[in-house]
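Section 5: illustrative case.
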């Protein structure tokens, strides 16, 4: 199975329709709500950050609408971040890059890797720059949280989605 990324560029007009926009908006809303509901661990306390909402980073494998959906969800969720504008800008851009790379992943087992690596590096460096936390510890801490969210929770979500994708994403083709 190669996912739904084989259909060409997400910039093609066929992707920009009402269904695409609705899917992106729903994904953004779910990401934002999950982040806010679990705010104490979503925004971390020092170096510990575990965003349950990051399990949604597997969604680009199923629909390209997840790319702008995750980006917008992170923009909205990060407006409540203690790091402020820095997190809104750099955290959101990191998610946009990771979502695009996940969309391009050749198989479902590799889908969680881009958000783990990109967010581990970007958010880890942000923690170092903003709070003067030790760089390596910051990167490793964020990466560990991403592994739990993206691989453990994300893979559970993928098992569920693999059983229901024909109902949730009927027009997205392999």
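Designed sequence:
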């Amino acid at each position: 199975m190669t996912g739904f990324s084989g259909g060409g560029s997400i910039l093609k007009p066929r992707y920009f329709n009402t269904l695409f926009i609705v899917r992106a908006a729903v994904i953004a809303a779910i990401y934002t709500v999950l982040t806010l509901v679990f705010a104490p661990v979503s925004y971390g306390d020092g170096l510990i950050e575990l965003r349950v909402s990051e399990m949604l980073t597997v969604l680009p494998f199923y629909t390209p609408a997840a790319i702008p959906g995750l980006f917008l969800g992170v923009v909205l969720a990060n407006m409540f971040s203690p790091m402020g504008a820095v997190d809104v800008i750099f955290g959101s851009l990191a998610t946009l890059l990771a979502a695009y790379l996940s969309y391009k992943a050749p198989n479902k087992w590799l889908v969680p890797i881009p958000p783990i690596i990109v967010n581990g590096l970007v958010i880890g460096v942000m923690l170092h720059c903003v709070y003067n936390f030790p760089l390596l510890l910051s990167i490793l801490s964020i990466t560990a949280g991403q592994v739990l969210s993206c691989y453990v929770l994300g893979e559970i979500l993928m098992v569920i989605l693999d059983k229901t994708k024909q109902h949730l994403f009927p027009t997205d083709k392999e």
